[in-house]
Amino acid sequence: MFRILKNLKGNPRICILIEPLWSIPYNLYLPYATVFMYALGIRDAQIGFLLSIGMVFQVAASFAGGVITDKLGRRLTTVIFDITSWSIPCLIWAFTESFAGFAVAAVLNSLWQITNNSWTCLLVEDCEKEKIVDVYAWIHFTGLLAVFFAPLSALLVNSLGVVAAVRRLYLMSFVLMTLKFLILFCFGKETQQGKIRKQETAQISYRKLFSQYGAVICKMIHSRQVMTALAFMALMNISVLITGNFFSLYITRTLEIRESWIAVFPTIRAVIMLVFMLCMQRWVNRLPFRRVMMTGFLFYLVSQLVLIFARAESIGTVLVYTCLEAIGYALVMPRKDSLMSLCIDVRERAKMTALLYVGMIGISVPFGWITGWLSSISGELPFVLNMALFLTGMIIVRINKTLKDYDRKYYRF
Questions:
Q1: Contacts of 405 (CB under 8 A, 6+ apart)
Q2: Residues 6+ apart with CB under 8 A from 174
Q3: Residue, of 411 and 62, whose pLDDT is higher
Q4: How many CA atoms lie within 13 A of 232 on its CB side?
Q5: 73, 60, 131, 113: which is closest to 341 by C-alpha?
Q6: What single string gives the DSSP state of each residue in 220-231?
Q7: Which of 170, 200, 254, 312 has the highest local Cβ count within 10 Å?
Q8: Helices (H) and strands (E) in the chain — how many of each?
Q9: Count of CB atoms within 10 A of residue 177's CB?
């Protein structure tokens, strides 16, 4: 992996090197985000409603993202909407005390779907195809390294309490994230495809560009590869939404585990995933795609069973869950990302990426409210829903012809 990073050049290398400036603060505040809202009087159903509000606007942002990325260019789009969707919401989160404030921040934060499109283009468009999986592995790797800073948030929570500590974390996030966005703008370069698309769209109105989505949508609907990628994207997005927003509430309220432990579990998860990625990822990459995905979903499924049947104050059981879930993530996520990149027509990467995220978020929208409602009934129910998602993923892996073709093409021994 380190040899690969050394040999990378241009945007992929810059994106990887500065990613910790975003991932470290993000992983410091993320485990406490819902607990912070709960401490300020925002309840389960309201938290779920906020998630659905954010996703509704993410659909619109994703739809606009392809056109904006082509029109303004990957580099300029990224800096504008990174600051709008991350820097400004961090300031709002740091000072708000009301549901309305969280709602405004959720709307602004939803614009990250625009920059997710443009940043993805910056990351992969000038990258050699055979290195894309490794580039995504490095992005996940830097995110895991950032989790090792999570115990700092636990120390802050212990000394200041949840509300005061998380407010400080949001302010620090504003500074570090903004620095990252400015560095990428100053030292990154527009991709070759980005330059082409800027020239091609320079004299075309936004209205006409949006009308061109129709042909791209038809092309995607009739592509078995694209629909397969969309199915996995939607399943995993809903699962991440459930786990990321309701795991902390579940272990603190239902399992009665102290709030200071919240930051410990992501750290342990990161250790396991780092060991896996450094010691086993290259070997796993040689195995058939379907076999690895099926194994990953199985680990995910068992992890949810362990969590659901955990007893109160059973930290050991939650640690077992963390280990199983980490292995599942390491097996499934890089392949889900690479499948998306490989199925996209490079000439329409921005539009196709945007529409894939529109579909993914559109499917996910009801699940914010549904998960909040389930959590208000019983803390275990969101993770029962997770089990249903992972079983669906296993069925898709088992029967999908695209993945069988993918294995035959890329994994001949």
A1: none
A2: 87, 90, 91, 94
A3: 62
A4: 28
A5: 131
A6: HHT-HHHHHHHH
A7: 170
A8: 23, 0
A9: 23
Instruction: Give yes or no for a contact between 332 and 297, defined as CB atoms under 8 angstroms apart.
Output: yes
User: DSSP letters along 328-342, please?
Assistant: HHHHHHHHHHHHHHH
Structure tokens at 157: 């929570």
In this predicted structure, what is the pLDDT of residue 412? Answer: 44
Backbone φ/ψ region at 256: left (φ over 0), alpha (ψ -120 to 50), beta = left
pLDDT tens, 262-288?
878 888 888 887 788 777 777 777 777
Q: Can you tell me the distance from the alpha carbon of 10 to that of 66, in angstroms, rounded to the nearest whole number? A: 22
Write the single-letter amino acid at 377: I
Quick one: tokens of 399? 């029967």
Compute the C-alpha angle 171/172/177, nearest 5°.
Answer: 105
d(CA 344, CA 352): 7
CB proximity list for 30: less than 8 A, separation 6 or greater: 244, 266
Type of residue found at 289 = F
